[in-house]
Design a protein that fits this description.
Layout (H helix, E strand, L loop, with lengths): L2 E2 L9 E5 L1 H4 L4 E16 L3 E16 L2 E8 L9 E4 L4 E16 L7 E3 L6 E4 L6 E7 L10 E7 L4 E2 L4 E2 L11 E8 L2 E6 L4 E5 L4 E4 L3 E7 L5 E8 L10 E2 L5 H5 L17
Antiparallel strand pairs: 1-17, 2-3, 3-7, 4-5, 4-6, 4-7, 6-8, 9-10, 10-11, 11-19, 12-18, 13-20, 14-17, 14-19, 15-16, 15-18
């Protein structure tokens, strides 16, 4: 199971349910809740989790804390706030909209926390037609977790992201071992994975691509259609990292960005006021 079509893993109450077991690996997971005003209760078990509004707003209750997430109308209309849930906790999410729950199997128990939207670093990465926006809301140096790393990427129509193709499946001073999930909204677009797992899939809202190993990229947004993806990453290292190794055939592209301007359509979103 590498390309996961929208709806194919739905299991009440989850519209999407990917666990380490169903993915066939050890750490990374992702669930999506679609709510119409009701509440859903669940246990985190041995996974630390985030509650990240894709659209709408919600209230998160966990360990005596009540966190209100203002959310956003859609992933293309703003950076969102989010909540962190520790391992071994019982939680309840009540709201209206769609909510992603990135997760990672963890051992260190951290407190329930609120992540404000205004503290999410927004980065414009690349140049020219390789320009994209990265919302580093749960990058290793931004928000503390035990194993979990997660970022959002927005790619304007016609651009490529996750480019040059890169991998993170070997432990070295330049690369970390990471299991990675791509969850898509918008599109249509196309996702490529090679060198261990072969994927060239058309992707749109609700689709998922799993990357247990190998080079991945580009993520291509079709002209006229903006593409969003949520990355969920986790691995065995004691220290969180997103270190990667470019495909040496295409690594030269990164140097060419110094001679190009970023796409003027970026950034596509910011903090809603």
């Amino acid at each position: 199971m590498t390309f996961v079509p929208a709806g194919s893993t739905a299991r009440a109450p989850w519209a999407l349910s990917i666990t380490p077991e169903t993915a066939g690996w050890t750490y990374s997971g992702l669930r999506v809740l679609c709510l119409s005003g009701e509440g859903v209760s669940f246990d985190t078990g041995d996974e630390e989790m985030l509650v990240l509004p894709l659209s709408g707003e919600c209230v998160v209750e966990c360990e005596g804390q009540r966190i209100t997430l203002d959310g956003r109308p859609s992933v293309f209309e703003g950076v969102t706030d989010f909540a962190y849930l520790p391992i071994g906790a019982s939680a309840r999410v009540t709201g209206r909209g769609r909510f992603a729950l990135p997760s990672a199997r963890a051992t260190r128990r951290l407190p329930v926390r609120y992540g404000p939207a205004e503290k999410v670093p927004v980065e414009v990465r690349g140049a020219g037609q390789a320009s994209r926006q990265v919302n580093n809301f749960c990058a290793p140096d931004v928000f503390e977790c035990d194993k979990l790393v997660s970022v959002e990427v927005l790619t304007p129509g016609g651009n490529w992201s996750s480019y040059p193709p890169h991998k993170h499946d070997e432990a070295s001073e330049h690369e970390a071992v990471l299991e990675e999930i791509y969850y898509f909204e918008g599109g249509p677009g196309y996702q490529r994975v090679y060198g261990g797992h072969e994927v060239l899939a058309e992707v749109s809202s609700g689709d998922v691509v799993l990357v247990p190993r190998g080079y991945h990229g580009p993520s291509m947004a079709a002209p006229g259609y903006d593409l969003y993806y949520l990355n969920v990453l986790a691995g065995p290292a004691s220290e969180r990292s997103m270190a990667f190794c470019d495909d040496p055939r295409h690594a030269w592209v990164r140097d060419s960005w110094a001679r190009e301007q970023a796409d003027p359509r970026l950034p596509m979103t910011g903090v809603r006021r």
